[in-house]
Amino acid sequence: MWLEQHEVGPGRNFTYIVADRKGGEGVVIDPSYGIAPVLHSIDAQHLKVHHILNTHSHSDHWAGNAEVRKLTGAKVVAHRSALLGQDLSVGDGDRLDWGPLSIEVRHTPGHTADSVLYIFEGHVATGDTLFVDGCGRVDLPGSDPRAMFTSLLTTVVRLDDALVVLPGHNYGRTPTSTIGREKRENDTLKPRTLEEFLPYIVV
Description:
This protein is of the alpha/beta class. The protein has one domain (2-201): Ribonuclease Z/Hydroxyacylglutathione hydrolase-like (Metallo-beta-lactamase, Chain A, 4-Layer Sandwich), CATH 3.60.15. Helices cover 21% and strands 32% of the residues. The chain is built from 5 helices and 14 strands. It has a 6-stranded mixed beta sheet with strand order 1-2-3-4-5-6, covered by helices on one side. Strand 4, helix 2 (65-72) and strand 5 (75-79) form a beta-alpha-beta unit. The model has no long low-confidence stretch (mean pLDDT 97).
């Protein structure tokens, strides 16, 4: 597998290019604003990008969709509740098998109702569900602190500790982490009851 992480846009967003190999076939995850470096890399590596994966419907995670699509003809993938005009709608537990690249979908509502994780080849793209050292906000329109409790403390904590975390923003001490490290060091994953979690997470 070949992977590139690009920090783009004013919000320190991460956009990812994932392919089976250099010069091979793959996907782009969360094309944000300021997508030019990503487009340049796709062109320079002669990659065939067949899908765009959006982790959720906030515009800083899909603003570059049209430009990637124009360059590559890629189809857009998002959760079935997203209103992105996606070509392929996915739900919890779905598996996307594209040649040697196999991607599993986990629905993790909370930051938005349509938030998902994409798990592939020892990595997990977490969007704004999980950051390095934190998690996405739950005080925005469409956010749900109770759903985030379940997503973090039921779904995320049960993931394989060895998975490399690919967050949606560069907000942590390091640009990537692992699920194991986040379970040990990320305070948002500390075991709590719902009654303890809500006052903590809603600021």
